[in-house]
Write a structure and sequence with these properties.
Number of helices: 3
Structural class: mainly beta
Number of domains: 2
Distance between the termini: 56 Å
Largest sheet: 9 strands, antiparallel
Shape: elongated
Strand content: 35-45%
Length: about 500
């Protein structure tokens, strides 16, 4: 039968959600409405199995779509391997996510009203290997501390459908959060969380590219030993914008890095704020910021940098991207430079292929002209010559546009009036590489200065690199001077 949750729940404990901004998909039933105190509600997709354990003195009970299903001892596992075997209630018709047709509401509550659920972990014992769980939305209508360690995932169990977690008064008081949202690919919304009793946030949120604009302040966690809020090269967490921590936290986990915010959208300002928050440490602690949007460009060696102007390049002093990127065949490179002499070849921008060669170079020739080298597959790279002769000690602005393999390069002396330097085509898409500024792999470095204030790279019309995501050496020193190792690649 179709069961109406809203009419089945008591109404005398209604509490208005404070700052709860999650807007459920239209087809989903509202598991927040008329929720009972002390209960946990799960909206689950019947295409997937579901399993969990709850810790509560005296045991816990489960209703499915408002009908009593079964009673369990504390820490006993509820498991539904195949919803097609369940016929007691019809569930709810839904049309989100794609291909979903039916959902059920699981209501979890203590058998003894005065006893609180103190821990919850949503993972089913799989028959073999990794197994996705079917939770779409979880709502915690509780007042007490709760341990959510492995709350919605572990290494072999994960909830990549989980879209939102909400809570009574939009607040969860957590006592454990490690592996809570591991591989949470669909997670968009979280409530406020009280972190004061949390000491371990290993793999707290990982690979969550759908996460909406989020800044987490865990500065109340003064005993924190480790925290991971990170994506990977295929799961960039664009919605994660900032992290605040306590400068009293020991971060003394034996597992490094103690802080991992890689592949998140923390910009330069957010990174500097985090560096300033860091406690002083003495045990070789590490903070990992690989692929972070504020660290796409870093120093190799020690070129001279002042007000965004980089000079004194050499074979060991240049700039490099902290993560690799595929320029492909739709990109734009803009830069500005002054060369001091034409006595040797000079690389402005390059993409190294291996230890001895490059896939791509923008280069100054000894003739005073520019040349552009692009990959030609297994045949190496080929040269495309520029037509304009440059002058020494003159600032030039360069703009290279590649549109589906068709290249046009423009130069200017005033950044307003541009002339074409060359046009050419290349059928090969530029593969994944680091980007170097001021040096190429064949030991050609730039003589003069490059202006980062007028330098950017766009890929498929999206800005990938500019001055705002360049981390200066003295800025990363904020962390290193406190004893931290900053890992950027």
């Amino acid at each position: 039968m179709q069961y109406n949750l809203q009419s089945s729940l008591v109404t005398n404990l209604r509490i208005k959600q404070k700052n709860d901004t999650f807007k459920k998909p239209d087809s989903w039933p509202n598991i927040r409405k008329n929720a009972q105190n002390g209960h946990i509600y799960l909206l689950v997709d019947d295409r997937y199995p579901i399993g969990f354990v709850a810790t509560v003195t005296g045991g816990y009970s489960i209703n499915i779509d408002g009908e009593h299903y079964d009673d369990y001892n504390s820490q006993d596992q509820f498991s539904m391997a195949d919803w097609s075997d369940y016929t007691d209630t019809e569930g709810y018709t839904i049309n989100y996510p794609t291909n979903a047709t039916k959902a059920h509401i699981i209501d979890i509550y203590s058998q003894t009203e005065s006893n609180d659920i103190t821990a919850f972990a949503c993972a089913r014992t799989a028959a073999s290997g990794n197994e996705a769980q079917g939770v779409l939305w979880a709502h915690f209508h509780i007042n007490n501390d709760i341990d959510l360690s492995k709350g919605f995932a572990y290494t072999e169990y994960y909830n990549d459908l989980l879209t939102a977690v909400t809570a009574k008064n939009n607040l969860i008081i957590a006592s454990g959060l490690d592996y809570c949202f591991y591989n949470a690919a669909s997670l968009k919304y979280l409530p406020k969380i009280n972190y004061s009793n949390v000491s371990d946030m290993t793999n707290f949120i990982t690979n969550a590219p759908a996460l909406e604009n989020t800044v987490l302040d865990v500065s109340a966690a003064t005993t924190l030993t480790k925290i991971d809020i990170c994506g990977d090269s295929t799961h960039f967490m664009s919605g994660f914008k900032g992290l605040r921590i306590s400068n009293q936290a020991p971060f003394n986990s034996a597992i490094t890095p103690q802080i991992n915010i890689s592949y998140t959208n923390m910009d330069k300002a957010a990174l500097l704020q985090l560096f300033n928050d860091l406690p002083t440490v003495t045990d070789g602690q590490s903070i990992k910021i690989v692929g972070c949007s504020g660290t796409k460009l870093i120093s190799a060696g020690s070129p001279t940098i002042a007000d965004g102007i980089v000079s004194n390049f050499s074979n060991s002093n240049y700039l490099t991207s902290s993560q690799q990127v595929a320029l492909g065949n739709n990109f734009e490179i803009v830069t500005a430079f002054i060369t001091t002499d034409f006595t040797s070849y000079q690389a402005i921008v390059a993409a190294p292929q291996n230890a001895t060669s490059d896939r791509f170079i923008i280069q100054v020739e000894t003739t005073g002209k520019l040349s552009y080298w692009t990959t030609n597959g297994s045949d190496g790279i080929i040269k495309h010559a520029g037509s304009n002769t440059l002058a020494e000690n003159t600032k030039y602005y360069l703009k290279m546009i590649c549109n589906n393999g068709s290249y046009t390069v423009y130069i200017s002396t005033d950044n307003t009036t541009f002339v074409t330097d060359t046009s050419f085509t290349s059928e090969y898409s530029l593969a994944t590489n680091h980007i170097w500024i001021g040096k190429s792999q064949n030991n050609i470095f730039f003589k003069g200065s490059i202006d980062l204030n007028n330098t950017h790279i766009k890929i498929n019309e999206q800005t990938w690199l500019n001055i705002d995501n360049y981390l200066l050496p003295d800025e990363s020193a904020i962390a290193t001077e406190k004893g931290w190792t900053v890992t950027v690649s």
